[in-house]
UniProtKB/TrEMBL annotation:
Swiss-Prot/TrEMBL catalytic activity: a polar amino acid(out) + ATP + H2O = a polar amino acid(in) + ADP + phosphate + H(+)
Signal sequence segment: none
Protein name (Swiss-Prot/TrEMBL): ABC-type polar-amino-acid transporter
This protein's record includes keyword Membrane: yes
EC number(s) from the headed UniProt entry: 7.4.2.1
Pfam families: ABC_tran
InterPro entries assigned to the protein according to its UniProt record, in alphabetical order: AAA+_ATPase (IPR003593), ABC_ATPase_HisP-typ (IPR030679), ABC_transporter-like_ATP-bd (IPR003439), ABC_transporter-like_CS (IPR017871), MetN_ABC_transporter-like (IPR050086), P-loop_NTPase (IPR027417)
UniProt keyword Transport, yes or no: yes
Organism placement in taxonomy: Bacteria, Bacillati, Actinomycetota, Actinomycetes, Micrococcales
Native source organism of the sequence: Kocuria dechangensis
Amino acid sequence: MSHVNKHFGDLHVLKDINLEVARGEVVVVIGPSGSGKSTLCRAINRLESIDDGEILIDGKRLPEEGAALARLRADVGMVFQSFNLFAHKSVLQNVTLGPMKVRGRSPGEAKERAMELLTRVGVANQAEKLPAQLSGGQQQRVAIARALAMEPKVMLFDEPTSALDPEMINEVLDTMVALAKQGMTMIVVTHEMGFARKAADRVVFMADGMIVEESTPEEFFTNPRSERAKDFLGKIL
Ligand code: ADP
Ligand code: MG
């Protein structure tokens, strides 16, 4: 992202954002509520437009619309706070539909790959159920499998554990740590320090629409440089 700006009316929500994420890198984005973290994620796959600046994915600029945009979106997996599964489709269908529709996979291929992914995230035995029959932690792991089924180049996670009961947070974070260790490129909005310490290469601290600080997790959590980061960490730790 270079020189990215975004307004909602008079509100300047992304202020000259410059952020480069290398292949295989895991970047944790942290910051107070309202600082623009979700807007940043949403801008990356064009769920939000930007006013100026540019965003390149694997060297390519985001297309405005149409089939090219659909393909680009498929390169960017996204997992939200609310699991956003298709409520009336089985777990298996949730994971096979996208690859068949957007990637042109046959039903057989899509199913085989989906079962591999559901096994990887530990919910293969739930494949025939509807999302509502699963726990929140299981649903979120299905959402991760669904995103991975599209073979994305980068995965975005926007507070993936903040709607979960405490006992389910680790099962989702463990899945994400495993993905990070396998070399997936990831941008993760989370306040889970344990995840940042285990998996992040870099922590980006946002406040008021700006990237205020970037450092290693160790540096950030033990020795934040800016007053804003100190203040924020004082509140969440
Ligand atoms: P965060 O994810 O860090 O909490 P957001 O990116 O959701 O922050 O929001 C940044 C700012 O933009 C907030 O002030 C929020 O109220 C505002 N905002 C977000 N989405 C919209 C929208 N669709 N319309 C108007 N304002 C919005
Ligand atoms: Mg948010």
